[in-house]
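Recall that a protein's primary structure is simply its ordered list of amino acids. Everything else, from secondary elements to tertiary packing, is in principle encoded there. The following example makes that idea concrete.
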Amino acid sequence: MDPTLPAEPSRPGPGHLLHTAAALRDLPRRPGGERAVVMTMGALHEGHATLVRAARSRVGPQGQVVVTVFVNPLQFGAGEDLDRYPRTLEADVELAAAAGADVVFAPSVDEVYPGGEPQIRIAAGPMGSLLEGASRPGHFDGVLTVVAKLLHLTAPDLAFYGQKDAQQLAVITRMAADLNFPVEIVGVPTVREEDGLALSSRNRYLSAPERRTALALSAALFAARDRLAAEEALRARAACAGHPAPDRAAALAALGEDRAAADAHAVAYAAAVPPNGPSVARAAARGVLEDAALLDPPLVLDYLALVDPSDFTEIPDAYEGEAILAVAAKVGTTRLIDNIRLHFGAQGATAAHPGGATPHTPGSGSPAAPPTPSHPQGPLGATR
């Protein structure tokens, strides 16, 4: 054991801190209770607290909630922010305990990787080479390797991850299914600031002007959601009205009813053209991001992608079903990601609450809506 670390408590209680796998193995469980794990890299915020509360709610008073705090060097590439990634362990333990965690497991690098970086790692496969994987080669191999190790060390029945890291959640879910991990992977909705910015440990790096620019990420997603909803509302009205003809618009225009005429034209257009929800969503989001590229400081787009949740490949314009609209960009030196879940289909396209999001009200201790398990081949339930 690292002599600089405090001794393990003999009888761990709420919020107690453990540093070794041996101490975690000796941690007693209540009869009949399930163990849930929330994996983090520390610098905890309300998004992490929401995960802990969701885990606590799911396992109940007889269950056990373990929060891991480990800054994993394998998932940082060259030039990324490993050295400056915030370490706030004392505050992390307090936040985790207040949210309902029984124990915080904060191992050293030597504890997780005895003998140095592992020679054998888990490969994320094709899904891990797209989007985040393309921008950060090897990132998801590092994520899956440490997640697999922490699942073995913590031996949970359930593991909770935030939907903000949607691709991370997807590859973890796929790994658990493909490699037969005996654990249920649960996705929990994104938590946002009141202005829409998704909570992230990296938000603290943003200056005030940079933060204003960063709001374009969530604004782009919401623009796509709202534009999609407006188009589908017009399509629904067209269906109910029996597809109003263009001559109806012309008649209204002759009476000087310009707004009504414009509305009638819009409804007639919606009735006449095939559904094109994916292209509408992409265009609405891209317009916001292009405007943000002209701000001072500018938003530098990495990618905007509308993807199938099962494999993170781009969806065609004729796609029906759930999709994820994902965005990544840099503001100053800080790289941020965000996403929203949308649905396209014969019954009309709908959009989830922003990113499946849970707005954060400062000072509120209320738990998030009950999370639902995620599945590797369908709708997904990924907060850092």
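Residues 208-240 form the longest helix (33 residues). The longest strand covers residues 321-331.
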